[in-house]
Amino acid sequence: MARRRPYEQDTENHERWLISYADFITLLFAFFVVMYAVSVVNIGKYTVLSEALGDAFGGRGAANRSNTMVEVDALPLSNILAHKRAEAAKAIGELKKVSSLPVYEPNREQAVFDHIRAVNPGPLSGTEMQDIYERIIDVMRTLQRREG
User: Fold this and answer.
1) Rounded Cα–Cα distance for residues 116 and 131 (Å)
2) Which of 99, 92, 100 is nearest to 137 (CA)?
3) pTM for the full predicted model
């Protein structure tokens, strides 16, 4: 009896590119999520992210270097924030002049200090944070008292 040839199926998967493509799209999505997350510079969140990535990839040195770089890069941002705060203080000072309100409002300042101490995550103590904010408020008060 003659042997019958087995039926040859086409076992080659012509859609195997789809798996690679799906992996690529997933990585691209993750990349853009991370890029969006770090687009707004938040030192605390960025530090947590860099430490987590350092732990995940087993290298603590790179995470520490990137933390230092972020702190240095954030210096101009703090300058910008100080100027924005000064502009706001100046506008508030003008409103206080027009409304004949006093520049120094101890109750309002005490409320700010209480809030700063309540939300302070450290490493500075609440008193140290209050000292910093007292100086900032003092400078802004001086700015409000200046004649235009």
Assistant:
1) 11
2) 92
3) 0.45
